[in-house]
Amino acid sequence: MNKKRLTALIIGCAIIAFFVLMAAFPSIFTHYGAKEMFDSWQSPSAVHMLGTNDMGYDIFTELVYGAGQTLLISVSSGLIAMLLGTVIGMLAAMNNLVGHIFNGIINVFMLLPKLVCLIVVAAFLGRSQIATILLIAAFGWVGTARAVRARTLKIANSVFIENCVIQGYSKLHIAMRHVLPNLYDVLFSRLVSCVSGCVMMESSLSFLGIGDLYNPTWGTMINFAFRRGAFIRRAYNWLLVPAVAISLLVLAFYLIGLAVKKREA
Question: Which of 35, 97, 131, 253 could form a disulfide with 125 if both were Cys (CB 3.0 to 4.6 A apart)?
Answer without folding.
Answer: 131
